[in-house]
Amino acid sequence: MKAYRPTHVAIDLDALRHNYHVLRETMRPDWRMLAVVKADAYGHGAVPVARTLEEAGADLFGVAIVEEGLELRAAGITRPILMLGGPWPGQEPVVIEHDLHVAVFEIEQLQRLEHAARQAGKSCFCHLKIDSGMGRLGVRDEQLDEVLRFFLASEALQLVGIMTHFALADCPDHPLTAQQQAHFKRALAKVRDAGLIPEYIHSSNSAATFSDVNGGCNLVRPGIALYGGQPFEDRTLPLEPVMALRTEIAHLKQLPTGSGVSYGHRFIAQRPTLIAAIPVGYADGYNRLLSNCGTALVRGQKVAVAGTVCMDWTLLDVTDVANVQCGDRVTLLGCDGDECVLAEQWAEKVGTISYEVFCQISKRVPRHYQP
To answer: What range(s) does the Alanine racemase C-terminal domain occupy (predicted)?
Structure first.
């Protein structure tokens, strides 16, 4: 007898390594890679992912918040870790103590970091974030001179990087991307003219890594591509899915024509129908918007979600699956034989992006790692 619910996420670390090497092969040999592992490595598990990628050769890691950086340090990750969003006020001493790199974009932030670094007798490693058109975080043109003067006057702050973020990196031919490139190059020239020579110059996320918008940079920041998500709509890159969401059939029920299924009876059987109940629902991250439109794989065959996705249960129409039985494996995300349910397909059905699909798989679903 099984002592656990069969619903789980399978993480294929070999696929992760494969995707890392695919990315490496697209890069110039002198470029370095910052692997983005924020948000628990997009739901894949930051520590096992970072350990795997550190062994594979990743040069830096990217996180969003201090807590994520500390988790990696506690796990023994020694490569540089960049906080892409910078620290909150009061977190500066922890950043300095654990040698975290930080994205910086305001004078007040620099003042707090310098004070903490002086107090600790250490340096703070800063990546100057330029707002080249994203309109989110970053130094604007009119602020750049003041920021550069601060760096030149400080002995505690080291400007080790300069960075920006493209709003439309997945559309490399869009005029905004060219405008942002030109803006970033002007800012970089101004930094160098001031006598500051940053080691890391970076602007590229997964989409930009595979396009021509990385001109002048020496570091790329892939995220979704490492996990097998396709940064472009044509889905032609040789990437492998790293995450699979799986469970087992818990119950089978034969229903006559005209029977309603699940909340609201949004599914009405149009023929004698065999319904499979599986122990996964929106509390596990299986989006309720997949009601009556989601797809799963049973015995290598695609089947449809029948009716409304519940908090803990989902129903499938398995009428056409030969010899189906309780205990059969069900794949909700990932591949079974030659058939796959990709994150991009799931995302399209619910009106979101593959990033959110990965991140929504909840913590109550255990992650099983395959070496």
So the answer is: 242-370
Q: Is the dihedral of CA 25, 27, 31, 34 positive or negative?
A: negative
The whole-angstrom separation of Cα 264 and Cα 35 is: 44
H or E stretch at 143: helix 141-153
Single pTM value for the model: 0.94
* Pairing mode of beta strands 8-12, 367-370: parallel
| Positions marked catalytic | 38, 263
Point out the domain boundary residue: 227, 253, 278. Answer: 227
- Phi, psi (degrees; rounded to nearest 5) at 127: -115, 115
Residues 68 and 146 in one domain: yes
Strands 101-104 and 81-83 turn out to be parallel
Query: pLDDT tens-digit profile of 152-161?
Result: 999 999 999 9
Instruction: Give strand pairing partners of 346.
Output: none
- Taking the C-alpha atoms of residue 278 and residue 286, their distance in angstroms, rounded to an integer, is 12
Which residues participate in the annotated binding site? 136, 311
Q: Could you tell me if 220 and 270 lie in one domain?
A: no
Q: Are residues 222 and 257 in the same domain?
A: no
